[in-house]
Amino acid sequence: MTPTEITHARKKGIFTIKFFPADLYGGPNAVKSLSGPFNDMQFVVTSGVNADTLASYLKVPAILACGGSWIAPSALIDDGEFEVITRLAREAAETVKLIRGK
Fold first, then answer.
1. How far is CA 68 from CA 12, 57, 64, 73, in A?
2. Which helix (H) or strand (E) covers residue 53, if one does?
3. Whole-prediction pTM value?
4. What is the per-residue burial (b if ≥16 Cβ within 10 Å, else e) of 33-72?
């Protein structure tokens, strides 16, 4: 997630990298800043992504994908709340469709 690490990845031919923990290191604004000088990179962000922040991450073109445990938290899995998990996944997919048109 640092410029040095990104440069090292590029030298190895890696152009998609994980940005973790995204919230701790500046969230969407940090990725926007990094994507300026590293405009050939794509980022997969995790940590701090949730239903409330997903749209702000998806609005950054350099972000390829977002991950977050809010869709299927272990408590819901343990309790067999698969209808809730399905609803949360559908809501996330609708946000993607709304922001990215996909």
1. 27, 12, 14, 9
2. none
3. 0.90
4. ebbeebeebbbebbbbbbeebbeebbebebbeebebebbb
| Host domain of residue 85 | 3-100
> 83: domain CATH number?
3.20.20.70
pLDDT tens digits, residue range 81-97? 999 999 999 999 999 99
Tally the domains of the chain.
1
Using alpha carbons, list the distances in angstroms from residue 13 to 7, 16, 26, 38, 64.
10, 9, 25, 13, 17
